[in-house]
Amino acid sequence: MHGIAFRFFISAALYVLIGMALRIYMAASGDHAMTPVHAHLNLVGWASMGLFGLYYHNVPGAAQTRLANFHFWVSSIGLWMMVPGIALAITGGPEGLAAGSSFVVIAGMLLFVFIVWRSRGAVSELA
Ligand code: HEM
Ligand code: HEM
User: Fold this and answer.
1) Mean pLDDT, range 84-99, rounded to an integer
2) For 13-28, what is each residue's pLDDT tens digit?
3) Is the CB of 21 under 6 A from ligand 2?
């Protein structure tokens, strides 16, 4: 695995490591307020970005495009906004960052829909 696929997968693995560590810290401290942060680090970070990585590994033609690189950055920046954004919103802070992040994250997913659609019929590594 290399290129965009590797970048997505290594980031995803790092996000779930942080998500797990956060959850263990929460369990130890007895403060469960940050569960939505844990959930989104793991599901937007690990599950979704990990799946993007597997897709790009499986369909190299889709990975070798500038749009795939853009998709990586939009998805990453969306998560980097979402995690502190949710934490701020939960702790009674401003909700703007969480709200803004939702548009960046959904823009990343829209890009992915387009990339998958555009690579229909592409040769799969697994085929
Ligand atoms: C060290 C590993 C993990 C620990 C100790 C852990 C622990 C927990 C606990 C105790 C909760 C319940 C929180 C509550 O209801 O207050 C929770 C919620 C959740 N966890 Fe984890 N978790 C771990 C890894 C994961 C992973 C790998 C994923 C996803 C890939 C995940 C996804 C979620 C989600 C989505 C929720 C929210 C569920 C809901 O809203 O009902 N967790 N976790
Ligand atoms: C634009 C992207 C997203 C936005 C704006 C968003 C927003 C939210 C909000 C506002 C909640 C309620 C939190 C609460 O009531 O405490 C929530 C919960 C949840 N979301 Fe998301 N979400 C997004 C993407 C995702 C994705 C992609 C997944 C899964 C792959 C996901 C999985 C969950 C789960 C499992 C919960 C329940 C977790 C909990 O109870 O803490 N979300 N989300």
Assistant:
1) 97
2) 999 999 999 999 999 9
3) no
